[in-house]
Specification:
Distance between the termini: 76 Å
CATH topology of the largest domain: Rossmann fold
Helix content: 40-55%
CATH architecture of the largest domain: 3-Layer(aba) Sandwich
Shape: globular
Number of strands: 12
Largest sheet: 5 strands, parallel
Structural class: alpha/beta
């Protein structure tokens, strides 16, 4: 439930900062106040909005309308928001998923991020902060689309198309969430150089937040598993102790050791 700082005072629309007037938002939440709030935000900023009060309805509408950003409540009447997010990613939905919840356990944040959420907001929250986060996510999506076909980073066994938001490992597509892609893009653009944690957080999230410092590890863990596979395969993302992270191709163990020689007796 959206608490006092939203419900108990007259609605005052935040200063409109239209990022993309064609952007489509979706909110999956059984709280009427939250649905109304997002509709007001969308109207103020010129966004199209679709609402759903259950996980099943949200999944169906998300596949039909392909929104640019989904606001997803963690607690729904028919299934958890975590399960909804997991199914969205399994179905190939690549755009931003922002979870919102009144639950206070940090474990909920971590699990949500592990199944593919890009951001997490705790209720109650300030309306202006929600608008700022929505616009920041939409802005990054728009910039990625504008650069379509202009940028491609190529490494042994790994191709990163910055414009099309696509990654291929050994010519096979690798499904990444927008946050995972943002982390990979930031590191790959600085290949060979160390990127500090604060620098990486500021570049990907565009703001400082203690939860994001915590969630960075979860995002990096999933990203490394997706693009690196087993520990014997090629390695791309390396931890530099007390400094940050470095993107640099290193061949897998077997390739580095060369072909094995069999003994002939």
């Amino acid at each position: 439930m959206i608490q006092a700082n939203v419900e108990d005072r007259k609605w005052e629309p935040p200063i409109a900062t239209v990022v993309d007037p064609s952007a489509k938002l979706m909110v999956i939440d059984d709280d009427p106040a939250m649905l109304q709030l997002v509709e007001l935000i969308a109207a103020e900023n010129g966004y199209e909005v679709t609402t759903a009060a259950s996980g099943a309805a949200g999944l169906r509408l998300a596949m039909e309308s392909e929104p640019d950003l989904i606001l997803l409540d963690l607690v729904l009447p028919d299934m958890s928001g975590i399960e909804v997010c997991r199914r969205l990613r399994a179905a190939g939905y690549k755009s931003t998923v922002m979870m919102v919840s009144c639950l206070q356990e940090s474990e909920d944040v971590v699990i949500g991020l592990e199944v593919g959420a890009d951001d997490y907001m705790r209720k109650p929250f300030e309306v202006r902060e929600l608008v700022a986060r929505i616009n920041a996510r939409l802005r990054r999506t728009r910039l990625l689309r504008q650069s379509a076909g202009q940028d491609r980073l190529q490494f042994p066994g790994l191709s990163i198309d910055l414009g099309r938001h696509e990654v291929r490992r050994d010519d096979r597509p690798v499904p990444l969430t927008p946050t995972e892609f943002g982390i990979l893009m930031t590191l790959a653009r600085n290949a060979g150089r160390v990127v500090s944690r604060p620098q990486l957080i500021a570049e990907v999230w565009r703001r400082r937040d203690p939860y994001q410092v915590h969630s960075l590890d979860a995002h990096l863990y999933r990203l490394r598993r997706k693009i690196q596979g087993s520990s014997d395969g090629p390695q791309y993302i390396h931890v530099v102790i007390s400094a940050g992270y470095r993107f640099e191709y290193q061949p897998g163990r077997e390739l580095a050791m060369g072909p094995r020689l069999s003994l002939v007796r």
